[in-house]
Structures are given as C-alpha cells and as structure tokens.
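Hi, here's the filled form for the chain we discussed.

Project: internal
Contact: R.S.
Residues: 430
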Amino acid sequence: MKKTTALFLVAGLATIASAQDPTLDQSRAELANMKADAANRTSLLAAGADAGHDEKGFYMADGDNFRLNVGGQVQFRYNMNFRDDDSGPDVNDEFTQGFQTRRTKLEFWGNVINPNLHYKVVGAFNRGDSDTDVSDGTGTVGSFSSGGGDFVLEDAWVAYDFNENMTMTWGQFKAPWMREELVSSKYQLAADRSTMNETFNQDRSQGIQLEWHNDNFRILGAFTDGFGTANSDFDSSAEADYALTGRIEYNTIGSWARFKDFTSWRSAENVGMLFGGAVHWQNGGETGGTVDADLFGLTADISVEGKGWNLFGSVVWTDTDVDGGYNGDDWGFNVQGGVFVTNKDELFARWDMLFPGDDRSGDDDFTTLTFGWNHYFVEESHAAKFTLDLLWYLDATTDTEIVSPSTGINLLTSPDDDQWGIRAQFQLLF
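And the returned structure, exactly as it came back:
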C-alpha cells in the first residue's frame, strides 16, 4: 500500500512539473518541426533536387531546369612602388608600399525554367576610398564613389540560347571589344592587365548582345550605352547616345574552352591559335550633359598556345572627335608570353606601349615592361595561384595625356622616368 501511494505521488509531481514548465512543450514542438523539415528535404531530394560541389563549384539544383551556382574570387596583394622625385626643394626617392585587397568578388550564375535560359550576377567589394573617374579612352566622362569595402555590381545579365549556335544576352556586361579585357581577371598571365588595356578597354556597359558561333567561328554584335557606363541610369551624362560593337573570332582547333585564359598547360596535345578583331563606334551629345563626341576604334589580336607555352599580341587604334576638344587618333600594342618550367611554375614577360596623338598636350610615348612568375598550387588549375611580378614604367606619367595612373596596376603619378613596381599576389577561387 505504501509503495502504491509513493508511485502515485511521484507521477502527480511529474505532471505538475510539466504543466508548470512550458519549455518542455516548446521543445517537443521544435523537435516535431525539425523532423517534418528533414522529412520534407528528403522528399525533395527524392524528387530530383540536389546540392553539392562539382566542376562548376557549389550549386543547388532541381533537375536540369533550375540551377544556382555560387562562387567567388579573392586576390590579395603586397605592393611596392619606387619613383624618383626630382621636383620641389627636396630631391628624394619616393617609396610607397602596402597591402591591398585587389579583388574580392561573389558570383551567382545558373539557369531557370530550362537550360536555355541562363543568368549571371557578379558583385565586387571595392578597394578604393575616394571618387573614381570613368574614362572611355578619350578622357574622363564621369565619376562614381568607390568607398573602401563598398559592394558594387559588376555583371548582371540574362541570356537565351535559341539553339546550339545562337544566343541573345541582355543586361550589364563587357562589350565584345578588346580580348585582354574579355579574359577574366581570374585567368590573366600577370597579376593584372596591361597599361594599354587599362587605357583603351571597354569595361562594362548596359545593352543587348547577339552571338553566333560554331566550333571554329564566333561573331558577336552589341548595342550598348557605350564604354565605361556600368551602373549608370539612362539619362546619365556618362552614357553615349548610341554605341555599336562588333567582334569576330576564329580558332584553329575547334575548342573555345582552350582560350578562356592566357595560359597553356603542359598537357596540351596540339598548338592552338585564335585570331580576333573588333570594331566600335559610339556617339554622344543628345543625352543631358553628355559630351558631344564621336569615338571610332579598331582592334586586332592573336593568341598562340602550345604544349606548356603561350604567346599573345594585340593592337588597338581609336579616333576621337570631341566638339570643342581633342580631335585625333591614339593607338597602342601589347605583346606577352609565358612558359612552364615545371608542371606548377610558369615564367612570363610582357611589353606594351601607348602612342598618343600628336595634337595632345602630353603626346610622349609610354612604355611598360613586365616580368614575373606564377606558381599554381594545383596542377592545371587557377583556383589557388601565387604571382610575383616586376613592373618597369620607363616614362613619366605626366608626359602622356592618355595614361591613367591606377593603384590597380601599381602605377602612380610621376613627373620622372623609370618608375618601378613589385606585386606579390595570392589568388583563391571558390
């Protein structure tokens, strides 16, 4: 009898305790929700949904019709810059050094509804801390705030494949102009692009592009707002009224993937060549505040890739007609090459020059020499790479009007010749 009474007493106390502690019921409810969510996820996976990591990176997918890929890029540098300072009361050698997060990007791409409708969105954390000028190769056309660490939209486009040969793209992207700019910053030979490219490149703009290609030929045509007009509104003074760009390419081996970078691995079985050329025209003056100017340009390039070695050369010419300003032409060229000395180590060199028009106030030629070494931590992969290069700017920046000093290429303003730069960069792709 005493044992029975004790048992009833314990049971009663437990019931009272549970009634007075609502967290027990809450915990049971949360556990039930977790079980239901796990069961739901299991049913989604069973129905064809998937997630993980493959050759494209991290992804989430529901069959072939819906897919989201997520990736990113980090380029971290240590820079040293040496300039002669022969102006002013003091004559000193200027030495500037420091770390720099050159690029930190997040990328999202994939397809929706069906594999033919695909998209890409890329944003970058800005390295700057002041206003940055926007240039189209003819001079400054505007500026935007580049506060350090600001997240800035780069690419934002949608594309539709009509068939295996024809694609239409609309949104914000790089117009099909200079090949060095079209090759991603992930896949450059040196730590960064050439001085010539930074002077004449198209950067990003908003518009529509049509592409036709087969195994060997590719033809692209774009109607855009003009060079260097990323993230601008349609009434922005930085925009051209009309801009048309056309590019044609021919590769000798029937593979476009081979030429997504400037490097050629030792495993390459044949010599591949890519020939390219482009034309661009833009006109301004009607959009509010736009400079009344015409810009016409031509560029041509060739890439040769062998078994562990590569060569690339390009030339560009632009003719500018600015109402009340400069009327004339400028041009430049770039030659570079690399060779693997081991399966993971590549030596490279580059020579590029700028030739301003004779009617410019600063019409001196400008020459840049680059020498360097790449170490790939994984064979035949850009995912983890260390680059060390030496830059020699032979001429004064103040004597060449079209040169735009930039910390991105370790070129600072100097009234004297022989500026030197050293870049040590680690790149990680994920």
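Let me know if anything looks off before we file it.
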